[in-house]
Amino acid sequence: MAMRRLSVNPGTAAGKAPASYSILIGKGLVDQAGSLVLPCAPNRKAAVVADGTAWSLHGERLGTSLDGAGIAWRVIVVPPGEGSKTIVRLAAIWDELADFGMTRTDPVIAFGGGVVGDLAGFAAATYLRGIPVIQVPTTLLAQVDSSVGGKTAIDISRGKNLAGAFHQPSAVIVDPGLLDTLPTELWIDGFGEIVKHAAIRDRELFETLAAAKGPESLRDGIEDIVYRNLAIKADVISRDERESGERMILNFGHTIGHAVEAALGYGGLSHGRCVAIGMAAITRNSEALGATEPGTAEALVGALRAVGLPDAIPAGLGAGFDSALALDKKGSGQSITLVLLTRIGECRLVKMPRTEAAPYLRIGR
Ligand SMILES: NC(=O)c1ccc[n+]([C@@H]2O[C@H](COP(=O)([O-])OP(=O)(O)OC[C@H]3O[C@@H](n4cnc5c(N)ncnc54)[C@H](O)[C@@H]3O)[C@@H](O)[C@H]2O)c1
Ligand SMILES: [Zn+2]
């Protein structure tokens, strides 16, 4: 079985000591998780925080592999869904980590999608003021995006992801074979961030996506697609070490996308679909304003449709969208940084006063 490796050097931008970590990618890697985790588990002990569905489908293989490496482990199963990213669930995990006698050097293994990655990551960031976390993502979105970068969070009553911490993983183990059980709806959702990565950085990957005969046709080639996405994300994050702010290019499509997501009420339309809509909208606008090469929006929309993603603004967003946009936390004061495509495969950051940004962020016809 082939295993590929990428290295991330997150640097000091997130306020953490510089430490690099590896992303390991390969089908079937879950069966080697034990030996891969071992360098991060000096006491041969680890706590698994697992999504309920991922655990029932694939947990036995992870457990067998940990057993094989002589690692003592316990699993904390989390009910599937965003509703688990709460302070109550977090506190229950802290208690279980304490009951299991986890010490500073014993790692948490996050086994699930973005929900478990964020929740287990935040638990690891806070328990004993921080213990190691190893991400083992099981959804497409988590494999190409959320498992890398060190952002962890829970939701609070006032909004999504409002309490959290930067906590870089000690390793990320990515087994695209785990995605075989992912239903089409969730499969498609992961392509929002994949199209994003391709549009801002990888024209060749973009052409592959644009030529797809529907999302299911991409199952066979997913290992390569996941690898290329992680290579882009790892590179962008590592460059931000020089504090260039380049990491912000990963927000492409997210300003409008987040506002659509919030206006519909979280859960109304999935994150990947909202990002797709956001990318299409800002690119149509920036092309009309002369900031993007003609034809780019059409190409982008073509790729979104080829992978089953929407591009049209849902009807009836109205005032909810405007207020969500005004509240977007990514702006700093009166200015906002937009990510605009120059052409497919290239983008740039443009910082401007919020008032001037309005034409780029409009969703009207
Ligand atoms: N930290 C970051 O940088 C970052 C980035 C993007 C999103 N996120 C967060 O990620 C979350 C969304 O992640 P998600 O889309 O992975 O959702 P999720 O974690 O809720 O998983 C989606 C569903 O897939 C199921 N599932 C997981 N693995 C499976 C498998 N192998 N086969 C079949 N079903 C499986 C789960 O049970 C769940 O019902 C949000 O909370 C979001 O805020 C974080
Ligand atoms: Zn996103």
Radius of gyration, in Å, reads: 20 Å
Amino-to-carboxy terminus distance: 51 Å
CATH domain class of the largest domain = Alpha Beta
Task: Identify every distinct bound molecule in the structure, by name, code or SMILES.
Answer: nicotinamide-adenine-dinucleotide, zinc ion
Structural domain count: 2
> Which class do the helix and strand fractions yield?
alpha/beta
Q: How much beta, percentage-wise?
A: 15-25%
The CATH topology of the largest domain is what? Rossmann fold
- Largest sheet, described in full? 7 strands, mixed
Query: Based on CA inertia axes, which overall geometry fits?
Result: globular
Query: Which architecture of the largest domain per CATH?
Result: 3-Layer(aba) Sandwich
What spatial order of strands do you see in the largest sheet? Answer: 1-2-9-6-5-3-4
Instruction: List SSEs in N-to-C order.
Output: EEHEHEHEHEHEEEHHHHHHHEEH
Helical proportion?
Answer: 40-55%
What's the total count of β strands? 11
What does the model show?
It is a single chain. The protein has helices spanning 33-37, 52-68, 87-99, 114-126, 140-146, 184-201, 203-210, 222-239, 254-263, 271-288, 296-306, 318-327, 354-361; strands at 4-8, 21-25, 45-51, 72-78, 108-112, 133-137, 151-156, 159-166, 171-174, 335-343, 346-353. The protein has 365 residues and is of the alpha/beta class. The chain has two domains: 4-181, 3-Layer(aba) Sandwich (Rossmann fold); 184-361, Dehydroquinate synthase-like, alpha domain, CATH 1.20.1090.10. The chain has a seven-stranded mixed beta sheet, with helices on both faces. The protein has a two-stranded antiparallel ribbon with strand order 7-8. It has a two-stranded antiparallel ribbon with strand order 10-11. The chain is globular and about 60 Å long. The termini are far apart. The mean pLDDT is 94.
